[in-house]
Design goal:
Layout: E1 25-26, H1 31-40, H2 43-50, H3 62-75, H4 90-96, H5 103-111, H6 137-159, E2 166-173, E3 176-177, E4 184-185, E5 191-193, E6 196-200, E7 205-210, H7 223-232, E8 239-244, H8 251-258, E9 270-275, H9 280-288, E10 295-299, E11 305-310, E12 328-335, E13 348-355, H10 361-369, H11 375-385, H12 396-420, H13 430-438, E14 442-447, E15 450-455, H14 459-471, H15 481-487
Parallel strand pairs: 2-8, 8-9
Antiparallel strand pairs: 1-14, 2-6, 3-5, 4-5, 6-7, 9-13, 10-11, 11-12, 12-13, 14-15
Helix pairs in contact: 1-3, 2-3, 2-6, 3-12, 6-7, 6-12
């Protein structure tokens, strides 16, 4: 039978009070956790030491702009005009010590990263020649900030008893769609940009990026990004590895990775595995392998067999050098069950990995496949959750710095998840992370001359924020022994 209380659903028990709430409250007080991490890592000093964009000493400092843009991206903002999400938030303003800048000021700040003189180097548009636009000096300086951020997070992992001794660098390019007139055509029949990103898999931290036009193929000079990535690793790393797709099957990169000089560097030799470019000779070598030469090491959900075999292959194409240290080719065959075919009408597909590793073939292929869960996950989060997939300007330098700040933001969030959250929460995606820690209502009040942040009744959120305060130490007026005892640190 129907409940007698159902008529309650046809009316509301309150009226809308027309008086605005002037107390210092915020719907996303958890943003102050991100601000604490930013400051605890010494990011303001890092930014100040590398960026000097202001012509006058008044107004917002560079570190304040980057802090606010990171907070905007964390809360879900996708462009400078979304600064209204932070505007009028007295709780946030008091917690930061200043009111966030307006959208116009943020745009003016971003414009300073574009060097118009570099545009003279670009080929004429009608030529459509792929050209890697060089980073402006301020954008290059932000790479140094990113490097310092990574090393300081690594030190915190060490301090918390989670030393990161192994570093696997996963490198991959991604497409950012854009219909702006300045965007170039890319290989998927659209227009946009194609940045290259390198991620430290074990620590889930972005090490480096190279922002590129959409018409620049991923196989064009991937070494630049790889060098920046390995240079960003902390000295405490003792084992180094590299994984990439076929865009990384490129002479200069492979020669650099396997060069004997790498063994003399901190971290030593670099073990690598990259998807091999499927040249006709390599494809022929794979097809020559007999059925008995393939070893099954896995079965996919649809019954497709995953098989591996050593490939007897001597490179001969221009992108594969015969001289130097010989590399090993491990073949992968995907074999459909009887009566089932791939879309191209065949029952088998061939792939290969080129490597300097001596792992058994099945373990090597599984290890190489893990790349899909690291750098591709980073692409997804940065582009779809942190504003990195939206380009705010026609100017290359502006888009480049907006994307790089989204990478800095990714690392801030990753540090919180890795050092402060527990269990499944450490692997949570950005959408749920906001519900766990960011979209928490709070009020800033003053008690005995000490300003304090008080959250709404949410014990779990308070516990997470207390953990952030514990791990990311930062001197404040509220850290007296009396205050700590009253507020839980």
């Amino acid at each position: 039978c129907m409940s007698a209380r159902l008529p309650l659903l046809h009316k509301t028990p309150f009226v809308l009070d027309e008086r605005p709430l002037y107390e210092a409250t915020s719907p996303h007080a958890g943003l102050l956790s991100v601000s604490r991490v930013y400051r605890s890592l010494g990011m303001p000093a890092l930014v100040g030491a590398n960026l000097a964009l202001r012509k006058r000493q008044r107004g917002f400092a560079e570190a304040q702009f980057i802090e606010c843009i990171s907070l905007l991206q964390t809360v879900g903002g996708e462009c400078p005009e979304d600064m209204h999400l932070l505007a009028g938030d007295d709780c946030l303003a008091r917690g930061l010590g200043y009111g966030p800048p307006k959208a116009t000021a943020v745009r003016e700040f971003l414009e300073r990263f574009h060097d118009q003189k570099l545009e003279t180097l670009r080929p004429k548009r009608e030529v459509q020649k792929s050209f890697i636009f060089p980073s402006s000096q301020p954008v290059s300086a932000l790479q140094e900030v990113l490097r310092g951020q990574v090393r300081r997070i690594a030190r915190l992992y060490e301090k918390q008893g989670q030393p990161q001794r192994i570093a696997t660098v996963d490198q991959d390019a991604t497409i950012i769609e854009s219909h702006k007139q300045a965007a170039y055509s890319h290989y998927e029949q659209g227009r946009g940009y194609q940045p290259m990103v390198a991620v430290w898999a074990e620590a889930d931290l972005v090490l480096a990026d190279e922002f590129r036009d959409g018409n620049v193929p991923a196989r064009q000079e991937p070494l630049t990004c790889a060098k920046l990535a390995f240079a960003a690793l902390p000295q405490t790393v003792t084992q180094r590895y590299f994984r990439g797709d076929s865009a990384c099957h490129e002479n200069e990169l492979l020669d650099w990775l396997k060069h004997p000089d790498r063994e003399k560097e901190p971290g030593g030799r670099i073990g690598f595995a990259v998807s091999a470019f499927m040249s006709p000779p390599l494809a022929q070598a794979l097809r020559k392998i007999s059925d008995t030469g393939w070893k099954t090491f896995g079965t996919e959900e649809d019954g497709t067999l995953r098989q591996w075999a050593e490939v007897d292959f001597v490179p001969g194409e221009k992108y594969e050098r015969k001289e130097g240290q010989a590399l090993r080719y491990v073949g992968l065959r995907l074999l459909k069950p009887q009566g089932v075919l791939f879309h191209d009408g065949t029952d088998r597909h061939f792939h290969a990995v080129v490597t300097n590793q001596k792992l058994e073939g099945d373990r090597l292929l599984d290890w190489h496949r893990e790349k899909a869960g690291t750098v591709e996950h980073t692409h997804d989060e940065v582009k779809n959750e942190l504003g990195g997939g939206h380009v705010p300007s026609q100017r290359f330098g502006v888009n480049s710095v907006w994307f790089k700040i989204s990478l800095l933001t990714y690392n801030l969030v990753s540090a919180i998840k890795g050092l402060c959250l527990e269990g499944e929460e450490r692997r949570t995606r950005m959408k749920r992370f906001r519900l766990l820690l960011i979209h928490v209502a709070g009020r800033m009040n003053r008690n005995n001359c000490v300003m304090g942040l008080r959250l709404c009744h949410d014990a779990a959120a308070l516990k997470r924020m207390q953990r952030v305060w514990q791990v990311f130490e930062l001197p404040t007026q509220a850290t007296s022994a009396k205050a700590l005892g009253r507020r839980g640190g």
